[in-house]
Amino acid sequence: MASAIKCAFCDAKTIGKQEISVIGTVRVIYPRRPIIPASVLITPVRCVEHVHDLTEEEVCDVFRAAKNLHEAFTRLYATTGYNMFVNDGVSAGQHVPHVHFHFYGRSTDEHLNPFTTLNDREKYDARPAMAEDEYIEHLHGIRNSLLKS
Ligand SMILES: [Zn+2]
Question: What is the pLDDT of residue 3?
Answer without folding.
Answer: 46
